[in-house]
Amino acid sequence: MNLELKHIPLLGRLSKTQREVLAYLAVGGWNTLFGMLLYSIGYWLWGKQVHYLLLAILVNIIAITNAFLCYKFLVFKTKGNWLREYLRCYIVYGGGCLISMALLWLLKEFLNMNPVVANALATLIVVICSYFGHKYFSFRKHTKEGNTP
Q: What digits encode the pLDDT tens for the residues 8-30?
């Protein structure tokens, strides 16, 4: 099944770029929910045994892989380049992850926020910044000569 936003009434009137942004936001929303739920469940199950930052690192590895697959197939629809795009995704998300971890630590240790709430706030900030990294780095289109357009 090839789900295209242009086939949905009203959304078909949007430009290709607008549909891409809408798809990105939907996938980003899904991945954010996925990561937050996974972190919350993990914290509930293992919060007493596993440090909250280690748990966040493990959850981010799973969430980055989920995001890569969704962005590749549902948003940017690129062909091939699996390893390059996956590694670039890790660069974008790795930078975001470091920022997220720092924010999580600061919010937990200095503002005494609940780790789940602190993770949600840090995630919101990183999601906004990640769009630009994925759009112009991870999944940028290449010409036949191998250069970016």
A: 666 667 888 888 888 988 998 89
* The model's pTM: 0.67
Residue tagged 């709430």 (tokens): 117
- 76, part of any domain: yes
Q: Say how many Å lie between the first and final Cα of the chain, rounded.
A: 30
For residue 6, what is the enclosing H or E element?
Answer: none
Residue 1 within a domain: no
Structural domain harbouring 91:
11-138
For 11-61, the DSSP string reads GGGS-HHHHHHHHHHHHHHHHHHHHHHHHHHHHHHHTTTS-HHHHHHHHHH
Domain count within the chain: 1
